[in-house]
Amino acid sequence: MVLCFKLLFGPTAAVFLSAVVILSCFTNAPYLQLSLTTTTTNAPSHRLVVAAPSPPAPAPLPKCDIFWGEWVPDPDSPAYTNETCAFIQDHQNCMFYGRPDLGFLKWRWKPHGCHLPRFDPHAFLRLLSNRTLAFVGDSLARNHMQSLLCLLSKVASPKDVSVTDKTDPNKILHYEAHNFTIYLFWSPFLVRSEELAGRPGVFRLHLDEPDAGWLAAAPRVDIALLSAANWFTRQSYLYRRGRLVGGVYVPLNSTTHRLTTPRHSHRAALRTALRALAAARFRGKVVMRTLSPMSHFEGGAYNDGGDCRRTRPFGANETKPMRGVEREFYTSQMKEFRKAAAAGGMDVVVMDVTAAMRMRPDGHPSRYGHWPDEKRAMYNDCIHWCLPGPVDVWNDMLLHLLSDQSI
């Protein structure tokens, strides 16, 4: 006992401890543990314990939420111009039609707490090699596709292999060197629809029948990107099983049919489209893109002098809460996405662009999608997006989503 106390507390203690420290350098130094324990004898005795436990498992890194963030200045934008890309539709060619302020091009989306990589055309084409990507929906689906074509044009251009004439809105574009094909299917309601003869802008919507035009191509598609919201504000007669059941903004016999809201028809059409893909045993990936804002008109509605003339993005604290039909459409999209994901049997993801795009009232064509003397139904366009412009971030997000998951 006396010897033990001399070793621990006498002059030789320093030598003993030095040896322990040196030994630990050759074993597992970060996990050296010194502890005092008490025995069960009458007189307490003390021991020096050297332990090297297994290192703890590293905590998983938090997943990057690329859809929540802010726009930050970026002197390196844009990635292309109207002179370097031949795929920009006139309606979105803001630089060609003389938009004087180009500061709206010098911003980049920065998610909170993480980094969204800039679109890499080489990486995208490698990832999508031997695959097909279908944009299904409205004119914003076309806006998105043309942004992608422009970003890819830095390294490759597709061959138009569409089987229809040039006036047909459906397109097939093929990148031969990568065996990568892009489809564009015009289907603004996703379900079967007809415009009434003699009543332009008024539609019949068959809410329980998916549009066969795009659904028939599903077996050839690896990634289907759905885009549908804005058109559900149109005047519509609603049908189920071939029978009229209601309408949106149209005259009806109120004793037999129900006048309903755009939210009802929008959600029903989304549900029908997703269920049709599941029933067809779609083996690809479904990407549901959320609402692109309709509320950037200021000073009036789209047909009453409203315009969007801002020259910089909103900050996160400057956007107002979503209201009205925008909120209803967004809620419908998220609810139907969750239901489809929970049902299983189909790979479905959401691309939630809404928060980012609500901060960009400066990114629309406004009056710079045509010449001043041209007559247009929507003279000031605050729905679509200039190319180049904020819409390019949709492809940053798309590449991130596809890279982050197996396709």
TrEMBL record:
Keywords: Golgi apparatus, Membrane, Signal-anchor, Transferase, Transmembrane, Transmembrane helix. This is Trichome birefringence-like N-terminal domain-containing protein. Belongs to the PC-esterase family. TBL subfamily. It comes from the Eukaryota. Residues 116-400 form the Trichome birefringence-like C-terminal domain. One of its GO terms (cellular component) is Golgi membrane. Residues 63-115 form the Trichome birefringence-like N-terminal domain. It holds the Pfam family PMR5N. It comes from Paspalum notatum var. saurae. InterPro entries: TBL, TBL_C, TBL_N. It is a single-pass type II membrane protein. GO terms for molecular function: xylan O-acetyltransferase activity.
